[in-house]
Amino acid sequence: MKEITREDHRRFLESYDYVIIGNFRIPLGRHKINKFFPSSFALESTTVWSFPERGDWATHYGDYRGNWSPYIPRNLILRYTDKGELVLDQMVGSGTTLVECKLLQRRGIGVDINPNAVMVTRNRLDFDYKSPGNEEPEIRTYVGDARNLDLIYDESIDLIATHPPYMDAISYSGGYIEGDLSNIHDVDKFVREMRKVAEESFRVLKPGKHCAILIGDVRRHKHFVLITPRVLQVFLDVGFILREDIIKLQWNMKSTREKWKGEHDFLLIAHEHLYVFRKPGKWEDLSELKGSVKWW
């Protein structure tokens, strides 16, 4: 892991006003913010989440393909953490999770294997906001690999909230960054690498705390490719307990529309799974939770 600081970002802006993510140009620069919070918000109370309007407050622009709606980390942060606690997003992308940390007075760590993504994150964090009576929380960003979080101490994180790629459904580095999970086409290899992510997640998370992963499936040769149940299994296999399986409905399915134009004899995938895992407490008796843990 290599830290990218606010000063690194500002030096970067002296030479560049955009980065390339995949084949898309993402502008960098100053922000004109109209509002810091959603116009209306209530914590989700069921296991089906749907956000037809993805959210456009603060620096949530929606121009980074495949990033999650800010309503998702907002719900997770408010439900599973208190002010001042430490949130990790180890596949941080455009920084949606960390922007919510800043607005909600949580400390944050963001990691991404793509240096351009980290610059987008730092740019999205580059705005002034401090709630009355609260200091601005410390937020750190790193170029690094979710499978090797070597600068994060054991059992130091209060919440993990992250959104991995769905294999190579969207290639964020165009094949140019070694180890990028979004370059993997083979489902068996992807699951093996996601196990390493699960192991590191388990290591850095405090006992009793939560790890939330938004993951989806893909379609190939007109058939459904199972990613989500296999990712669920590797997280259970390393020791996590399944707390929630939330169905998140998809609304702006650009990749799906582009790939499957016209008539087709199958159903378009329009949902993802948001798995919320809990790390067992030290010496916790799991006998009453045998239906929520590894069963094989």
Q: How would you portray this structure in words?
A:
With 296 residues, the chain is α/β, with parallel strands linked by helices. It is built from seven helices and 13 strands. A nine-stranded mixed β-sheet has the order 1-7-6-5-8-9-13-12-4, sandwiched between helices. The longest helix has 18 residues, at 187-204. It is globular. The mean pLDDT is 94.
Name the shape in a single word. Answer: globular
What is the helix tally? 7
- Count every beta strand, where a strand is a DSSP E run of 2 or more residues: 13
Order of helices and strands: EHEEEHEHEHEEHEEEHEHE
Specify the structural class: alpha/beta
Radius of gyration: 19 Å
For the record, the CATH architecture stands as 3-Layer(aba) Sandwich
Residue share in β-strands: 15-25%
CATH superfamily: Vaccinia Virus protein VP39
List low-confidence stretches: none
Q: CATH first level: which class?
A: Alpha Beta
Distance between the termini: 35 Å
Summarize model confidence as the mean pLDDT: 94
What's the story with the biggest beta sheet? Answer: 9 strands, mixed
Strand order of the largest sheet: 1-7-6-5-8-9-13-12-4
List strands and helices in order, with pairings.
Blueprint: E1 2-4, H1 6-13, E2 18-21, E3 24-27, E4 48-49, H2 71-80, E5 86-89, H3 96-103, E6 107-112, H4 115-124, E7 139-143, E8 157-162, H5 187-204, E9 205-215, E10 218-220, E11 223-225, H6 228-237, E12 241-249, H7 254-259, E13 271-278
Parallel strand pairs: 4-12, 5-6, 5-8, 6-7, 8-9
Antiparallel strand pairs: 1-7, 2-3, 9-13, 10-11, 12-13
Helix pairs in contact: 5-6
How would you concisely characterize the structure shown here?
With 296 residues, the protein is an alpha/beta fold.
